[in-house]
Amino acid sequence: MISWFVKLGILAVLFQVVVIAGFYGYLRWRHPVPHAESRPRTKRLLLGGVVLITFGQLAAFGAIGSTRMASLFSLRQAIRIQNAGLLVTFIGYGILVVGFALYLRKRA
């Protein structure tokens, strides 16, 4: 049984991924990249950023949520895992910003 906190976190992560994918789709539609060979690097950066964001947030929500359902971790361990997950999330957002900046730069 998953606690409501983790379910809400999963919905928030899915919403963020949908917004990021929608923004990328909008950029591809409004500002296509003329050089197709430069697109794979940008796609890898964007996909890597989304994966890090998703993994980091799910780890953070899961660690804290696990203390409410079953004591897999102590509270101190869960907080450490949550902090590491948030750090991974912030790194993922940084990579995502760099990927979008490279995408917009390559179209010019």
Could you describe the 3D structure shown?
This protein has 108 residues and is mainly α. 84% of the residues lie in helices and 0% in strands. The mean pLDDT is 85. Keywords: Membrane, Transmembrane, Transmembrane helix. The chain crosses the membrane at residues 6-24, 45-64, 84-104.
Topology:
Layout: H1 4-30, H2 39-69, H3 75-107
Helix pairs in contact: 1-2, 2-3
Total number of beta strands: 0
Order of helices and strands: HHH
Rg from Cα:
17 Å
Q: DSSP strand (E) fraction?
A: under 5%
Give the termini separation: 50 Å
Number of separate helices: 3
Q: Which class best fits the helix and strand makeup?
A: mainly alpha
Question: Briefly, what is this?
Answer:
The chain is an all-alpha fold. The protein has helices at 4-30, 39-69, 75-107.
Relevant terms:
mainly alpha; 84% helix; 0% strand; transmembrane; transmembrane helix; membrane
